[in-house]
Design goal:
The chain has 198 residues and is α+β, with helices and mostly antiparallel strands. It has helices spanning 9-70, 161-166, and strands spanning 72-76, 80-85, 89-96, 98-103, 109-116, 119-120, 122-128, 136-137, 143-146, 150-155, 169-174, 180-184, 189-191. Strands 5, 6, 9, 11, 12 and 13 form a 6-stranded antiparallel sheet that branches. The chain has a 5-stranded antiparallel sheet with strand order 1-4-10-7-8. Strands 2-3 form a two-stranded antiparallel sheet.
Length: 198
């Protein structure tokens, strides 16, 4: 009868234990690999979430940055012809274009200048936007400061109606955070970079 060779039993037991140990090692490696894959997926999701949060934070910061500048308004008056110049008398077909810059924000704006094309404007009167407020007269340009809720009126140099159409007004100002802005008569607001600054 052919029986088991019990002399090889320790070898068999060693082989079984080695197989069990190998299976345990394979299972451990697979478990670790699964954990690493889960960690990578978690890190990927966290990275996506952080990227979205960064985008939202940048958008919120940009909104805060332009919040004051958006509350500055420019209104353009009609072109007024037949300007009287003392030395020349009445100039037919010539006139001035008026612009009012209103600081509707709750902080001051600084270094406020209106341009008509390449031509600067001359200021006329700073007005308080409250009942019973009195105008404060000044001839300084650019206006160093326009307080919260105040408006400043500017007028162009003498020009023809055609020149007034070719030189639309643009206001440049610095907000309370030191950012320089440009606002055109269409209401388009842009940050002025160092290369664009006057």
């Amino acid at each position: 009868m052919g029986g088991i060779d019990w002399g090889d039993a320790p070898t068999w037991l060693g082989a079984v234990f080695a197989a069990l140990a190998a299976a345990a090692a394979v299972w451990t490696l697979k478990s670790q690999r699964d954990q690493i894959d889960e960690q990578r997926e978690f890190i990927r999701q966290q990275s996506e979430n952080l990227a979205l949060e960064r985008v939202e934070l940048r958008a919120a910061a940009q909104d805060r940055k332009v919040a004051q500048a958006r509350r500055v308004k420019m209104s353009v008056a009609e072109f007024c012809g037949h300007v009287f110049v003392p030395e020349l008398g009445k100039l037919r077909g010539a006139g001035r274009l008026g612009v009012e810059v209103l600081n509707g924000s709750d902080a001051p704006i600084r270094s406020v200048q209106v341009y008509f094309g390449d031509l600067p404007a001359g200021p006329r009167a700073l007005r308080v936007r409250k009942e019973g407020g009195f105008p404060e007269w000044s001839e300084v340009t650019p206006v160093p400061l326009i307080g919260a809720g105040k408006a400043y009126a500017y007028v162009s140099i003498t020009m023809t109606p055609q020149e007034s159409r070719e030189n639309p007004p643009v206001v440049h100002f610095t907000d309370d955070d030191g950012v320089r802005w440009s606002l055109d008569y269409h209401g388009s607001l842009e940050e002025v970079t160092d290369t664009q600054a006057e």
